Amino acid sequence: MKLYIQADIEGIAGMAAFERREDQSAENLHLRLRLRKLYTAEVNAAARGAFEGGAEAVTIWDSHGAGDSIIVEELDRGVELITGDYHRAPWLPFFEDGYDAGMYLCAHAMAGTPFACLPHTRVVLNGEAYGEAGMFIVQLASRRKPTLMVSGDRAAVDEALALVPEMASIVTKKALGPYIVKTRTPESVCEEMQAKASRTVKAWRDMPLYDISPPYVFNYTHEGGDKQYVGKSEDLVDVYRRFVNAVYGLEGGNQSTGREWLDRFLPDEYKHKLM
Fold first, then answer.
1. In angstroms, rounded to a whole number, what is the distance separating the alpha carbons of residues 104 and 82?
2. Which of 154, 152, 111 has the alpha carbon at shortest distance from 6?
3. 240 within domain boundaries
4. Is residue 21 located within the same domain as residue 118?
5. Sign of the C-alpha dihedral, residues 252, 117, 186, 51?
6. Are residues 176 and 243 in the same domain?
7. Is residue 124 part of a domain?
8. Of the candidates 85, 95, 32, which has an alpha carbon nearest to the alpha carbon of residue 60?
9. Most CB atoms closer than 10 Å: which of 125, 149, 204, 215?
10. Residue 226 forms part of a structural domain
11. Greatest CA separation found in the chain?
12. Which residues pair with 43 in a beta bridge?
């Protein structure tokens, strides 16, 4: 089987504050590098477990920030990494390459969640609120693909298990508030991650799917007003890609480099946004 892993960073063990990307001090750069090593170790443990469980291919999408937080040279040699500016490509990039199942790792809870570490993002689809992990689960389910495992802080894991209770899960930390946690050690998390990934991949065909069906309608607040986006397709992955492009400006399919002297050779059809 082929496994697709979407990963964020806020759910890793040991992290209790948002990255301060604008802070270029030596102290902050050292902290960010440490967090990236912890992030890489957790997703790598899951990948190794998946290979042990029989996965033939494992692809990890680094969906945090600028898409460059996972340290590629520290990954298992069998892993493929999706890295780079995903704002210029379709959401769930390369998902059409034929994956059988997914995992969502290092998750944070949705905005408005109490006792959660660094909660943010909230999407309302068909009247139900979802966080980033939830949207991954429902998109895969809409294509009849199961999500096998989730990891993150206690609140994020509970949020995901409310959708598919049978999923494997790893709790990395427990929060008293958005910026204070009681964390496990990275070593203990990685050991559990590898063991559970192996077990769940071995039994991947038995994982139930979340129940979601069209039509797909998103409700959101933008520029001070409540709005609605109605999908025109029965494919939720396609609808969500168009939704995030229309609302948040993600330019799926835009092949331009942003350098005029190079883009003059590019056919106009590849400069258009996905609408």
1. 14
2. 152
3. yes
4. yes
5. negative
6. no
7. yes
8. 95
9. 149
10. yes
11. 54
12. none
CA 134 to CA 160: how far, in whole Å? 6
What are the distances in angstroms from CA 125 to CA 217, 218, 225, 244? 6, 5, 17, 13
229: helix, coil or strand? strand
- Could you tell me if 117 and 18 are in contact, meaning their C-beta atoms sit under 8 angstroms apart? no
| CA gap 204, 154 in Å, rounded | 23
Residues above pLDDT 90, as percent of the chain = 80
Pairing of strands 147-153, 168-177: parallel
- The amino acid at residue 266 is L
Q: Look at residue 16 and give its three-state secondary structure.
A: coil
- Kindly state whether residue 139 falls inside one of the protein's structural domains: yes
Backbone angles phi, psi at 87, to 5 degrees: -65, -15
On the question of pLDDT at 275 being above 80, the answer is no
Residue type, 221: T
Structure tokens at 257: 């480099």
Judgement on whether residues 14 and 136 belong to the same structural domain of the protein:
yes
207 within 8 A of 168, measured Cβ to Cβ: no
Tell me the β-bridge partners of 149.
Answer: 103, 168
Using one digit for the tens of pLDDT, what is the confidence trace for 240-251? 999 988 887 777
Could you give the angle at the alpha carbon of 145 between the alpha carbons of 142 and 150, nearest 5°? 105
